[in-house]
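Blinded run. Sample ID left blank on purpose so nobody reads anything into the name before looking at the predicted structure. Input follows.
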Amino acid sequence: MTKTAFDLIVVGGGPGGYVAAIRGAQLGLSVALVERSELGGICLNWGCIPTKALLHSATVLRACREAAHYGVAGAGEARPDLAAMVARSRKVAGRLGQGVAHLMKKNGVTVYAASARLAGAGKLALDNGATLSAPHIILATGARARELPALPVGERIWAYRQALVPAEIPKSLLVVGAGAIGAEFASFYRAVGSEVTLIDMTAEILPQEDAEISQLARKAFEKQGIRVLTQCAVKASSPTATGVKVVLDQQGKQSELEVERVIVAAGIVGNVENLGLERTRVKVEKTHIVTDGLCRTDEPGVYAIGDVAGAPWLAHKASHEAVLCVEAIAGKPAHPIDPLRIPACTYSYPQVASIGMTEARAREHARQTSGEIRVGRFTFAGNGKAIAMGEDQGLVKTVFDAKSGELLGAHIIHPEASELITGYGVAASLEATEEDLMHTVFAHPTLSETLHESVLSAFGRALHA
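Blinded prediction complete.
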């Protein structure tokens, strides 16, 4: 007889859900995981992982084209094999999906391939007719791309799924939305030869980032040939013989643009439908489930983690929430996540990574508290390893509380930014001060020396600037 009663049931098998299932099993709970589609969720199958595989292919292509600069002959004629790039990205995603399935089996997690609805206290009704029960139910149903009425997704207007498996490289492409997803697709398609226009309704691309970093990213994009339009929106679209014609509105001035394809990357909405929430005390605001610091909803025994529980919409935030939520359920000490200690990364070319407050936010915080800040900057043009790599464009920026020495924020733009930001993440978690960071010995020659120099710069002690 199939088991239907568990200590913990997790709905959704993405980076929040499957990690919650593993941690629950590690703590001795009997765990079931319900996933309606693919283990690993959107992140592994149609988001974080396959996009990074494609972007790495673009990096290799770029390196081949620039090989002569490094004394390597014969690679300059490299061209993209789109079918092979896409096949590789799907293979990478598939391999990791199999890995998640193995982890479920290894940890004794019972997996149900189904959709689920809350069906009363501690109960879940599956669409295969089964009913499961548990005193603790975690909703980790994730999110999906936001739809725009002016841009109905179809053969020529793509969301992220279609953009990840193109049959051919579009000669011209409009990317709507210049956040992380839009910036990454713009970088990839430009690298493989598309004429790319990137637009956003806000005043700058990557609007969540520090303004100085966003402006540097825009300059880098434009240098690569990406056309960037800010404070710009799509008012209408219509098919043409070869693509799509869109009507753009930029601060009240309208214009038309015709492209072969459009990618819509204008944000996400939480997957809160068909979960049976209407029969519970669970609150939903702007398509996201409201939770407290331990991921509890207002419905006893029901929790929510990851994208469905709101910003920041990051896989590593979901995984961390999964662990703290399950540990709290198991009676272990658990502490709410400080959003200012969650790093954010955009894997465009160049990459952008950050943690904590922007300079503008830090200045506002200082104004409200009668404090002061100190800002340090160090460019990669002063770093030996960056020059040796031929990647000497970029900036490390740090923001400190002038009195306490607390690291308030750190911001990096460079092809290796996503790897470097963790240094500041560890520092923030350990509550390191500027003195701690300045006294840390950084290996030479490494890119990480720029982290040190930026800290020194904030306090007037930079050595190589």
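Unblinding after everyone has recorded impressions. The first helix runs from residue 17 to 26.
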